[in-house]
Structure formats: C-alpha cells, structure tokens
Amino acid sequence: MNLSDAKVLLTGGSSGIGLETARQLVQAGAAVVICGRDEAALAHAAQTTGAGAIRADVSQEADVIALVQRAAQQLGGLNVVINNAGFGLHAPLPALTLAGFQQVLATNVLGAFLVGREAAKHFIAQRAGNIINVASTAGQRGYATGTAYAASKFALRGMSECWRVELRPHNIRVMEVNPSEVITPFLEKVGWPVQHPERKLQAADVARAIVHLLGMDDRGFVTDITLWATNP
Length: 232
Known about the structure:
It contains seven helices and nine strands, in the order E-H-E-H-E-H-E-H-E-H-E-E-H-E-H-E. The chain is of the alpha/beta class. The chain has a single domain (3-227), classed as Rossmann fold (3-Layer(aba) Sandwich), CATH 3.40.50.
C-alpha cells in the first residue's frame, strides 16, 4: 500500500519496537495512533514520534472496543492494525505460577485476539485492511524457562494462520513478524540476560521490516518474516 494512505493503530507503542515502528511510519507519511497502559510513557512516545495516543489495556475487552472505535475516528478511518503489545515472563516450570501464566496470555494472546477481532469488523465492511502480528522466534521453537512466553507466541502464530485463511477473501492481508532477541526495555523487564548486545537486533531493524511489509503493493503480501541477528 501507499504508506501516505495508511491509517494505523499500533498497540504497545510507548517503547521498544512499537515506539520505533510508530516513528518510522510517521516519517513515511502514515497517520498513526499508538496505545499503551502507562499514560506518561504513552504521552512521551506520542510527542517524540508525532503519533496520536489512546490509553488502553488490550487485555480488557471494553478497552479494546473503545480503542478501535476511537482510533478510527481520530484517523478518519482505519486500514492497518499492528498487534505489538507484549508481556514477558520467564521461569522454570515448577516455579511458574498460574497468575503469571495467565498474565502473559492475557496480553499476548487475548489482547491480540480482541484487537484483531474489532479491526476485522472494520476491514470486512470496507473490503480492505492489513493486520500485522508481532510474534517471535519463541513461537517457532521452545526453550528452557519459556513455557508462558513461547506458548503465547505459538498461539499468536496459530491465530495469524487462521486469520489469513479467513480474511484473505475480504482483501485483508494478515502478516507476521518473528524477531529473535531485540535490545529493548522489554528484555530488562523480564530479567533476560543479554550477552554481546552489539550483536543483537535493534528495534529499528524490526521496525524497518514492518514498514517494508506494509509498503508492498496491495496485489501481494508476505505471510511472515523471521529476523535473526547475523552473529548472536
């Protein structure tokens, strides 16, 4: 699509991959609204990127319904949704709590489902739209301490495949981005040790991939793309 025609709702836009993606999309001429739970961080992100901002918790159905409606009103329409909001938790299986497991799935799976569902209603009605789900290489291969996070990303990958089949007849492109380790505040929050950060992916790398996928002419689309550091 022509990025100057893009009207984008991007979840998890206050830091990391979301923040950089919003910045690059606005620079490319897109109209963007970001959302997040931290009002202060969200306001700062909006100021630095030029995006609009709506405070919302994607794990709450009422928040998501209002979010999509308000974003469409602010943007004068809606033709792109980027499911980027994510929550991480790493723990050995015996130490993993039910509450922790549910918290990861609430944002990474339920949140993506709710945003995707509400966006699909708009896209089906207008017979056009784009959904990009930011998943992870953790959704392709499991690892020790990754029960909750990998489960959520495997689920997101499955949903992406289902949506792609279901929505393609309505001229809706469903795409998935699978980054490996990316140097963002996310890694600090989950307590994931980082060795040789200079060799890891940066948020700008993933953002460029997202912008590239979206900018492809509407007659075609890339179903999914995986990004690895060259020498991790």
